[in-house]
Fold each of these.
Amino acid sequence: MRSTRLLFGAILSVSVVSALVIGTPAASLGATRSSRTSTPQNVDVSQRHGNESETTVAINPTNPQNVVIVSNVQHPLSGMFEGVSFDGGTTWATKLIGHGDNLGDACCDPSLSFDNYGNLFLTYLFNRENTIPVALSTDGGISFGLIAKINGIPKRQVSRSGHDDRGLFQFTDQGTITAAEGEVWVVVNVGGPMGAFGAPVHGLGQVGSFDTREVIEGTNNCTYGDVAIGPEGQVMNVCTLTESGQGGGKLFVNVDPDGLGPAPFGKRVFVADTHVGGFDFIPPQPDRSVDAEPGLAWDRTGGAHAGRAYLVYTLEQKNESDNTDIYVQHSDDDGATWTDPVRVNDDHTTNSQFLPKIALDQTSGDIAVTWYDSRLDLGNGGPGDTDGVPNDDAQYWGAFSTDGGSSFTPNLQISAGTSNSADANNGIDYGDYTGLAFFEGIARPAWADNSNSTGTNPDGRLNELDIYTAAVPVRG
Ligand SMILES: [Ca+2]
Ligand SMILES: [Ca+2]
Ligand SMILES: [Ca+2]
Ligand SMILES: [Ca+2]
C-alpha cells in the first residue's frame, strides 16, 4: 500500500467486526475443465461482503495441492483475509487473520512465500507500529506464529553499508518477502531508503534471527520494491525511484552477492525509465492510481537459463497517455546488464495494462506474467465494457514464456468476467498489486474482481470486490 502514512491516520478507530471464521467452499471446478486455450475456471476465494483486494498467493512445493492466499480487507476493518486450499484451489477454508489475534492488528500489504521445506512466510504492515512483522506457518497456512518484529537497523550494520545512519524506522511501506536457498529476505521501504532483512533457514520451523539488516545503497525515495534470491544465494532488490506524481518512475536494482554473508548490497543499476510515477492515474484505476509495480524472478533450476534474472514492470508509452504496457527484461550477469525490453501484452489498442506480476516455475524455468488489462473496453458495449466509457473496465490476463523471456505466448484472458474498480468504492481501487505463483506447470494468479462471473459474490455484480483465482496450465 502506498502512502500509508495518510491511511494510518484514517484507520485508528478499532473495528467491531468479529467472528469472521467462515467456511466457504468455493465453486467446484466440475467436469467441464477448460481447454488449454479458453478462459480457465474462475474460483471466488473470498465470497465475503465488502472489498478484498491487493492480494498475494503461494504454492507449497512440498504439497502443491496446498495453496494459500492473503489479501487486504476494506478499511477501517483491521486484519487480512486468508484462504487456504488443500485441493489445488478448488475449495478454500477462509478466515480473518491479524485482527487482534497473535498476529496483532494488521493494516494491509500482505506478502507470502513458501520455501522448499514447506515453511510459509508472511509479512504485512501493522495498523499503528512502524515495525516489520514476519509470521511463519509450518502447517500450510492453517496457523501462523509471529517470529520477528523488525524494528530498526543497528548502527553497526548501517555503517557497514555506510550510507545511512537511521536506527528505528519512522515509516514502513509495502514489504515483500521471499524465501529460497536456506534464507528468507524481506525488503521494505523504511522511511526513505529500502531496507533489506535476512534470516537463515535450516528446515521446517527452523528459522534463525533476522540479524542481517541493511540499508540498500542508493535507494533513497526508491520504493514499491521486490526481492528475489538467486541460485548461489545472491539477493536482488528492485524499486522504483519516485515518491509521487505521474511522471518519473525509474527502476533500479541492487544485488547482495553473498546473501547472508558479510558483503552488503552493491551499487544500484539503472534498468528502465517507465514514465509511470508513484501515483499515476489511469482510467481503470481512477482513485488509487498505479505505480510501475516492478517484480523479479530468478532461475534456480540449473536448466537451460540457469541463473537468469527477470524483471517485469509497467511502462507508459507516452507520458500521461494512459497507454500502459507490460514489459520484461532479463539479466544473465546478476543484474549488472539487462536485455532490451520485450513487450508481453499483444493487443493493438492504446488501452491500459497494469499491476503486473511475474513468477518462475522452479521445476522448469518457464515464466508466467499476469496483469489487469483494459484492451476489450472500447466503450462500445460488449463483454469488455460495463458502462459505455472506454478504458475504465478491466479483466485479468496472462502469458507464458518457455524460451527464457525471449518471447511470450499469445495472451490469455484469465478472468471470466469484466470488473470496474470505481464501482467497488474501495478507496484503493483494485489495490496496489495482484498475486501470482507458478509451480509444476500450473500458474496460480489471484486478483480482485467484481464481475461476479461466478455468481458467488455476496455483493453482486459491479459492487465490492472478491478475490478470484484460477489454475492456468503453461502453454508453449
Ligand atoms: Ca505517467
Ligand atoms: Ca496498452
Ligand atoms: Ca467501460
Ligand atoms: Ca467481497
Amino acid sequence: MITADVARQIISGARKVSVDLGLTVSDVCVNGDTANLLGHTVSVKDLEEVAGRENAVFFPEGNSMYQVAVSSARFYKLVPTAGAPTLEIDGVRMHRTKEITPDEDAEEKLEILLLKKGRALDTCMGLGYTAIGALARGAEVVVSVERESPVIRVAEMNPWSRRLFGGEVSLLLGDSFQIVDALPLGFFDWVIHDPPRLNHAGNLYSEEFYTKLYRVMAEDGRLFHYTGEPRSKYRRVDLQRGVQRRLRAVGFRGTEYHPDIMGIICEK
Ligand SMILES: C[S@@+](CC[C@H](N)C(=O)[O-])C[C@H]1O[C@@H](n2cnc3c(N)ncnc32)[C@H](O)[C@@H]1O
C-alpha cells in the first residue's frame, strides 16, 4: 500500500517506509528509476504520480499501480489518515477524522459502551474497526453485518481490517434491517450501532429497527448508537431527542447522549 506521503518519502531518499498504512516499517531499495518494495518493483515515475494524489491509497500489481477503490453504483475508496485509514463512500467519510483517527474513533465508541466479554452485534461493519475492537476487548462472539459488497472488497484490501477475515468475526452480507430478524432472541450482550448518517440510512434510525435490536439483546444488554453531528444545531437536538424517544418507546432504559462521541448509550 502506497500513499502520497510514502511515495514522497521514497523519492526523497527514505530507505525504510511503511507499506501497510503505518502498521509496520519495511526496507525500500531504489535502483535508478525503479524502487523495490517487499518484492514489488515500482517505477519512480509512478511514485511521482502517487505523490501528487492525496486522500487515496495505491498498491502495485504487475508493472502498474492501482487505487484501493471500487466503482459501482457508488464510489468506495480507502483514504489515509494519521492512523487507520477511513472509507469514503461517494465522498462521505464513514469515521470521524477531525482531530481523531478512525481506530481511535472505534475505540472511543467501545469504551463508552464499556464493552468487554460476551456476545456483540455490530450492525454496520464498514472497515470492521468496531468489530475488531470488540474482539480485542474480549468479546467471544462478534457478528458484523454489511450491506454493501464493495465495502467488504475495500476492507479485504485494508491491512487494518485483516482480523475481520481471520475467522473470529461472523460476517453477514446484507441489510441489518432484515438480517437482525434472523438472529436469535435475547442473544447479544452488546450492540454497536454505527450507521451512516440519517439521510443515508433512515430505516436504521426507526422505531421498527430499534424494536428488532431490542428483541435480539439479552436482559441488561447495552447498546451504543452513533448519531453523528448533523450540520444545524437545532436539527442535531431534534435528531438526538427523536432517537432517544424512539429507543425509550421500544423499552430501552437510561438513554444518554454523549456529545464528545456523538452517540447514545442505553440498556435493555
Ligand atoms: C459508519 S460505517 C461503520 C463503520 C464501522 N463501525 C467501522 O468500524 O469501520 C457504516 C457502514 O454501514 C454500512 N451500511 C449502510 N446501511 C446498512 C444496512 N442497512 N445494513 C448493514 N450495513 C449498512 C455502510 O455501507 C457502511 O459501510
Amino acid sequence: MANISCSSITKAYGTHTVIEGLDLSIPDHEFVVFLGPSGCGKSTMLRMIAGLEEVTSGNVVIDGTDVTHLAPGARGVAMVFQSYALYPHMTVAENITFGVRRQGVPKPEIARRLKDVAQLLGLEPFLERRPKNLSGGQQQRVAMARAMIKTPKVFLFDEPLSNLDAKLREKLRTEIRKMHLALKTTTIFVTHDQLEAMTIADRIVLMRAGQIEQQGTPDEIFDRPATRFVADFIGSPTMNFLPASIERMGEALTAAAGPIHISLPPERFSGLKTGQQVELGLRPARMDLAPEGSANLLEGRVVLIENMGSEGQVIADVHGTEMSFVTKDFRSVRPGDRVRFAIRPEHVHVFDRASGRSLLNDGL
Ligand SMILES: Nc1ncnc2c1ncn2[C@@H]1O[C@H](COP(=O)(O)OP(=O)(O)O)[C@@H](O)[C@H]1O
Ligand SMILES: [Mg+2]
C-alpha cells in the first residue's frame, strides 16, 4: 500500500526535454491511467517512478520515502511490460517465482504466494508448461503473476495489452480491474488507447508533450474537457468541431457558424463576449435525432451510416461540414436523406480558438 508523489519532475536527453516540471500526486489504492499520444512521455514517467530511468531533476516519493535515487529493487514496485520476456527454458511456475527465489523469500512462503496468484489469474492448469505452449494472453498473465508474487506496494503497467487481439484485450482489462478490486494495490497503467483508459481508470492523467494536460475521473475528462486537445483525444467517434462567432443579445447567447445558430446556456458561459472567435465542440453521442420544429437543430444530408450494432454512426453534411452523430435510430435513415439533430445545450463545449482552452464557467 502506498501513495506516490512526484514533484517538479524533469527529464532531458541531452538538450531535448521530454518531461517538464511535472507534479503528480496519487493516493493509496488508486488506479491511475497515464494516457496520451505516442511519444508524449508516458513510459518515461513510469520508468522514472520505477527507477529504470534517472530523473534529470525533481523527486519521487513512494509511501513517505524519497526513492528518487534508490535502485528499482528497493522501491517496492513491480512493473509489467508490453513484451512479456518470459524465460523459455523455465516452466510457468519457475518463471513466476524466479524473482522471489532470487530475493531469498522462504520456500513455503513462495509456494503459498504462487498458489494465490495462480488462482487469481487462472493459471493453475498451466504451472508446469513452458511459455511456448501458452497463448499470448496466458503469457501476459504469467508476466502479471511474476509481478504480483512480489507483493509490491505499487504496480506499474506499460501498455501490457497492446500485443493482444481485441477480444483478449477486453478480457484481460476486466481481469486487471478485478485484481485491483481484490488487492487494492496502488496502480499506474500506461496506454495510448482512450477507450482502455476510460474503462479501467479511477483517474486519468492525460499527457501531452511531457506535461499534464488534464487529470480527472473518466466522466470529468469526457464531459468537461479542459482543452480542445483533451476533447479531441477522448471519445469515439471523435467530437465534432465547428468554428463559430459569439453573439450576445441581452440575456440570449448564440454561437453562429455561417448559417448554423446554436443557442448557449448563458449561465454556463458567462464570460463570452460578442464577436469572440470560438470553436464549438459537439459529442456525436450527445445529440438526438429530432422531429421538425425542435429548438437548436443541426440539419444536414446523410453521407454515410456505420452500423455499430446497438447504435449507429450517422455522418451528415451540415452546410458543407461533415459531422457525426451516434443514434440508436440509425436504421430509420438512408444516405441522401435529410436529417435533423437536436443539440442539448448542456452538452455544447466552447473552446477559445487561439488557446484551445475551454470557456465553460469554472466549477461546471
Ligand atoms: N533513451 C532516449 N533517448 C532520447 N530520447 C528518448 C529516449 N527515450 C525516449 N525518448 C524520447 O522521449 C519522448 C517520450 O518517449 P516515451 O516516454 O517513450 O513516450 P510514450 O511512452 O508516451 O510513447 C519521445 O520523444 C522519445 O523519442
Ligand atoms: Mg510508451
Amino acid sequence: MYSLGFPRLYLQGYGIFDRIGDEVKRFGAHPLVVADAFVQNLLGERIETSFSKAGIKCEMLQFAGECSPSQIDFLTSRAKEFGSDVLVAVGGGKTLDVTKGMALNLGLPVVIAPTLASNDAPTSRVIVTYSDEGEWLGPRFLTLNPDCIFVDSQIISQAPARFFASGIADALATYYEAQQCLKKGADNFYNGKQTVTSQAIARICHETIWQYGKEAYDAVCRKECTESVEKVIEANILLSGVGFEGCGVAAAHGIGLSLSVLTPLYGDAKGLLHGEEVALGILAQFVLEGRTQEEIEKVQDFLISLNLPVSFEQAGIAEFSPEKVHLVAEASCKPKSRIWNMAVPVSVELVEHALNTVARLGRERLSRFN
Ligand SMILES: [Zn+2]
C-alpha cells in the first residue's frame, strides 16, 4: 500500500490572525482556544475580538506545563464542561500537542495556529507526551491530521530567530531521511510506502530550504517578513510536516533525539530545541551514509550560517567522552528507533564512529571560522 495524509485546510499569510474567528467557524460553533499565559497575553484580545466579529463566542483555556496524560485528561474534562465542538491550539509545540491530545480524546476537529515555525509538529498526527516531571513517554497519534493549519507569518517572523532556524534544520532532514526510507523500502507514518506525491513534497522542501533558508533566516533576525520568509515558513511547517509523515524518518531523528539521554545523567544538551538535535543528527546520518567530506562541509556551513550547532560543545555537551558517545549510540539503536529505516548498515559501533567523526569535523570546521 502507498499512503499519504494531509491537513484538510492550510492557511498562511501576513497578519491573518484577525481572521481566525471566521476560519474556525467552518469547523464548529463553540470553539475552545488553548494557549499558555504568554500567548494569551500577546494575542488574547485579538482572538476574542475576531470571534465576536465572526458572531461566535469562544472559551479560552490556559495551559501550563507539560503535555502529559494527566494534563490532557484535565483539559479534556474542561472542554466537555464547555460543550466545545472545535478545539483551537495557539502557541508552540507543547500547546499544539496537548490540544491534539484533547481532540483525540473527544473526537473533535482541531485547528492549529502555531506561533513558531520551529518544528514539524503543526501538521502532524504525532502527539509527543511527557510525564508531569518532564520524562519522555513516547508518542500518541491522532486518527487523522489536524483539520486546519492557520499560520500568521507576521507572528512567526517576529518570534526569536533561533526557533525559525530550528524549524529549518528539521525541514532540512526531511529529504535526506526520505531518501533512506525509500531505498530501504521502510514504512511511513501511515504504515505504507511513499507515493510519488510524498517524494515530490520532500524534494520541494529540500529545494526551498537550500534556496531561501539563509535569506529568510537573516530577514527573521531583522524581524522582517519577506517572500523568502513566507516560502520557508511553508517549508518548515507544511512541506516538512507532510513530507516526514508521508516518507518516514531515519538516523537524523534517531540519533539527534537520542542526545537527550545525557540530560538527566549529566545535565548536558539541556534546553536544546528539536531542530538543533536534528541538525547534529543530519551530520551523523551523512557519516553513516558514507558521504564525502565536501558534502558534510556544505551542510556544516549552512548550519553555521543559521547559528545552528555543528559541534556537541555548541549543543551544551561539556565533554563528549567515550561513555557519553556510547550512551547516545545505544539509545539511537534501540529496537523501535527510526534509525532502522536507514538503507546502510547500522550498529552501536557505527553510530559511535559517526558521532566521533561529527565531533572532530565540527571542531575542525569551527576553528576555521574563529
Ligand atoms: Zn522532526
